[in-house]
């Protein structure tokens, strides 16, 4: 039997691996900044002014406002881990610099990081149809992953990190067994590589024309859910997230 983990180990698990790596990166940069630009000042004894100088140093290197905000959060955690009170990274001057930088960028039209716009239903359908030329199994896999991410608001990384035990195999509307059986049947009986017919658009379309006019969450089986979301043309077995 494995030993009981320490309290520090459990507390450290609160932050994800990506967060810990990000914090470690900025904390090391702060330590290097204190050693180089602050005459070797101990980072643990750094003042609020040292923190804001570090933020401005990052900005002078071309870092974006969002990146500097992440650096501020990393310093807050750094001083908390070292039991520094009051926390200089949480002082009003530190907050004012980060918020002021964001406002300055907006007021002066300074380009910040390009934000990805939400994927529309039409774009998702176009993306799904783009997989028609792939290997049937690979195309079905991509469609399944993207649809699950879109419907469940999951990140692609979360989908890729799923393990076999994370999936409900025998129950629920989207059980893996029923969906897998539907995939096998469609790949065996249908032509998954059928060409998608081009529909001439002569007027402006609305979002309702791209949506499935049925209540998707009411699917009572994996087969019904599959037919609702993945069958663009059941006769030829063409898969598509939307009709």
Automatic annotation (TrEMBL):
User: Where in this chain does the entry annotate a coiled-coil region?
Assistant: none
Q: What is this protein called?
A: Core-binding (CB) domain-containing protein
| Organism lineage string | Eukaryota, Sar, Stramenopiles, Oomycota, Saprolegniomycetes
Task: Spell out the molecular function terms from Gene Ontology.
Answer: DNA binding
SUPFAM superfamilies annotated for this entry? DNA breaking-rejoining enzymes (SSF56349)
Q: Which UniProt keywords apply?
A: DNA-binding
């Amino acid at each position: 039997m494995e030993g009981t983990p320490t309290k520090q180990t459990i507390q450290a698990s609160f932050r994800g691996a990506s967060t810990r790596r990000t914090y470690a990166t900025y904390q090391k940069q702060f330590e290097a900044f204190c050693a180089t630009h602050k005459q070797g000042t101990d980072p643990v004894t750094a003042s609020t002014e040292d923190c804001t100088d570090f933020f401005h140093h990052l900005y002078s290197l071309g870092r974006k406002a969002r990146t500097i905000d992440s650096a501020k959060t990393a310093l807050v955690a750094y001083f908390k881990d070292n039991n520094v009170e009051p926390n200089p990274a949480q002082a009003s001057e530190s907050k004012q610099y980060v918020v002021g930088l964001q406002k300055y960028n907006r007021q002066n039209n300074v380009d910040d990081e390009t934000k990805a716009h939400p994927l529309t239903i039409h774009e998702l359908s176009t993306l799904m149809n783009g997989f028609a030329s792939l290997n049937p199994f690979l195309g079905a896999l991509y469609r399944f992953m993207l649809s699950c991410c879109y419907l469940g608001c999951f990140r692609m990384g979360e989908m890729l990190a799923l393990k076999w035990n994370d999936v409900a195999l025998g129950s629920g509307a989207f059980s893996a067994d029923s969906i897998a059986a539907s995939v096998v049947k469609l790949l065996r009986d249908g032509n998954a590589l059928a060409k998608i017919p081009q529909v001439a658009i002569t007027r402006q379309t609305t979002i309702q024309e791209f949506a499935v006019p049925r209540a998707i969450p009411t699917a009572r089986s994996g087969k019904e859910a599959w037919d609702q979301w993945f069958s663009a043309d059941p006769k030829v077995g063409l898969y598509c997230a939307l009709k």
